[in-house]
Design goal:
Blueprint (H helix, E strand, L loop, with lengths): L1 H16 L8 H29 L2 H10 L9 H33 L5 H32 L3 H10 L4 H35 L1
Helix pairs in contact: 2-4, 3-4, 4-7, 5-7
Length: 198
């Protein structure tokens, strides 16, 4: 019994390090990963349109310089902000989709039904949006308490003239990344429960 548990744990470690999956499922896993990347990129585009409206200096003073290589030179700042959003989030969507599919196969031996995967993807989106809203609420609260010196040290060299808006957008962006990871956990728990019902 004890030796069996040791073998199981060794197998678990090996599966974490070396992806093992049925070859028949590889095209679907790749498809879900690509779909996750597309949805993640779309989320980033919409997300950055909202945050550009809240605090454009976060982009004009910081992000536009960081992503200068991706500036198309046409369409204005909102188009550029959308491109930045896509570039900053497509990989999160791909990673989340890959992990969801891989864990589902590891637990079940095959991928869940398409409807369940759609619900899993939807839960990641909803949790990410809720987390972003939480970041906005946190930013509103911090307006009443003041910001740490470290934030001022970041904003002053950038020439930020509206620090409250800048910091609110920063909190929203950070919370959105956290939301993507939390959404992935929620999706995995939901799939686990659905498997039990099936």
């Amino acid at each position: 019994m004890k030796q069996g548990r040791v073998r199981d744990w060794r197998g678990f470690g090996l599966r974490c390090l070396i992806p093992v999956m049925p070859w028949r499922d590889l095209p679907r896993i790749a498809g879900y990963t690509i779909l996750g990347a597309l949805l993640g990129g779309l989320y980033g585009v919409l997300h950055d349109q909202v945050t550009y409206t809240i605090g454009p200096e976060y982009f004009t003073r910081l992000k536009f310089d960081q992503f200068a290589y991706a500036d198309p030179g046409w369409g204005g700042p909102r188009v550029f902000a959308g491109i930045i959003g896509a570039l900053a989030t497509w990989w999160v969507g791909a990673l989340v989709a890959w992990v969801i599919a891989r864990v589902a196969i590891w637990r079940e031996g095959c991928l869940p039904p398409v409807k369940e995967m759609a619900w899993a993807f939807g839960s990641v989106f909803v949790v990410s949006m809720a987390s972003a809203f939480g970041g906005w609420c946190w930013g509103q609260w911090r307006k009443t308490t003041g910001y740490d010196e470290g934030w001022h040290g970041l904003m002053e060299p950038l020439g930020v003239t509206r620090p409250e808006e800048f910091m609110t957008v920063a909190y929203i962006h950070n919370a959105s990344y956290l939301g993507g990871m939390m959404g992935m956990v929620v999706a995995l728990i939901w799939l686990h429960r659905q498997r039990g019902r099936r």
